[in-house]
Amino acid sequence: MKERICETKVPRKDKERIGAKYMCNSCGLLLRDAMQAVCGHFYCNSCLTNLFLNGTSKMTCLQDKTEFLPNEVFPDNFMRREVQALVVHCTFLDDGCQWKGEVRHLENHTNSCEFLKIPCVHPECGMQVKKADLTEHLEKECKCRLENCGFCKSQINLNKMKLHHEKECPAYPVVCEKCSKDDIPRAKLLHHQDPVMGDCDGVQGPCPFAQIGCSKTEVLTNNQRKSIWSKRTLITPP
């Protein structure tokens, strides 16, 4: 069955007051474009169309089991006028809207009602929120809201913050896998592990005599690397 538009949706208290006379015998909602079957029962035009499409050319009334053909139903303009003149509350009465008026004006009101629920602007969020609450939702509740990374200060969607920390953030503290030193900003890890300029005690560096021909590498302490660097400009090949 096709989704019904907001015009036919009324609060339960109105539905109980109006009674079954003005309700569709298929969807149970307020009649929209009322059609009367040969047996006298009413259906929404769209509901009746769907019922015929889903079955054979003959339909059985859902109320009294009378069988009828498509040419045995007709639009009931009198019923349509009655339905349009019914006085109902806003669809969102239970949410706080106090609007009340004829059914003919309900759809226009609902489209602009501050209590109308709309999808969050972030598809990944999936939440339906009141139009009036959308700004607050985006600032405080939405799992996709933008927040500043606590390390690099870039604005990141909250639902992607963990991935940002694990893979991208240049200021996020990481652990060197070679020396186990922690709290190293990701962007400085390569410099930390540089064989000559870095301060990692787990990286193999060149032999102190590399500039005069030694090709061996070994694990050097930070002080040894600094010593090599200070001597590089003093040692010249023979």
UniProtKB/TrEMBL annotation:
EC number assigned by the record: 2.3.2.27
Lineage top rank: taxon: Eukaryota
GO CC list: cytoplasmic side of plasma membrane
All residue ranges annotated as the TRAF-type domain in the record: 109-162, 165-214
Protein's gene: TRAF6_11
Keyword list, A-Z: Acyltransferase, Metal-binding, Receptor, Transferase, Zinc, Zinc-finger
RING-type domain residues: 24-65
Protein name (database record): TNF receptor-associated factor 6
Biological source species: Desmophyllum pertusum
